Amino acid sequence: MQDTLYLKLLENWANDNAPVFVVGPERSGTSLLFQQVSNHSAFCDFSEATVETFCFNKPWLLLEDSCPENYEMRLYVGQKNWDAFQNKIQPIVEANRLADARGLPTEYLYQEDRPKIWDARQYGPLLRTFFYFAWQNLGKKCLVEKTPAHIRSLPEIYNVFPNAKVLVCTREPSEIIASHRKRFEKEISLGVDRESPQIQWLNKPLEDYLAYFREIDDIVRHHIVQGRKILVVPYSELTEHALDTMQSIFEFIGVESNVNLDAQPSEAEARPEQLWDPLLNKPPQPNKIDISAYLNEEEVMRVKKLKEYLHDTWC
Predict the structure, then answer these.
(1) For the whole model, what pTM was predicted?
(2) What is the β-pairing status of strands 20-23 and 165-170?
(3) What is the torsion angle, in degrees rounded to the nearest 10, for the CA atoms of residue 21, residue 182, residue 288 and residue 264?
(4) What is the pLDDT of residues 115-136, one digit of tens each?
(5) Number of Cα atoms under 13 Å in the Cβ half of residue 300
(6) Which top CATH class is 20-43+145-266+278-315?
């Protein structure tokens, strides 16, 4: 009975909250967008937890003891709260043991039985519990979470939080590819082996990028047609027209816009500076990249052809 009452409490809490999820292609400006949103005084203080959780892509990691793979998730819950969180989800752990015995995969993305796996493994209640603990740990204000890859988990995000607000950061496709390649070369210059698995996400064939952009565009179109609460935020708008763009974003989210990028925040509103990426402490500013230094003419033409298919917010 206690577990049933607790799950109902979580469901009511999730229905009453509208957390913000920042998603989109990697290297499209999601970190910058996340920082600008979380700087608002209505949101939880994320100065210690601005990492990507991948909690919707890999929810089974929440069922495991402390390990490197769930470190980012533990930052949201709070290290001191992890044991209490683990204790609360024991019925879900048991449900997953039963799912293992039935031969159900842990991954649900791209699976034919995606909804069946999601329900059998109780990933919905698991993630509600995760975010409830995170909400308590981070100050009981509005939640915002940034994992670009969660673009593929929008149905599950809305399953957990029916009133969730999703911000999709987009960027001119050639710039995204160039940014990947620029970062790849930087990692090599810092001594990382070119063949290291840790940086291969920055070194994909052009065909992979083109397919990736089409997939994301299809997902966004589908959910907009479904009437979901989605706002597409082009990187160029965020960096070149930051004031107007942030005011539109806060209006979409439903919090009072108090944007003044040049003003110093009051002592009550001031947030600790980010140490993991000092550039995020600065107001958004234009950040052009030399595409010709990273894409040849044929690649540029192929991307240009792709843009005829993509939504016009890829700019």
Answers:
(1) 0.90
(2) parallel
(3) 50
(4) 999 999 999 999 999 999 999 9
(5) 9
(6) alpha beta
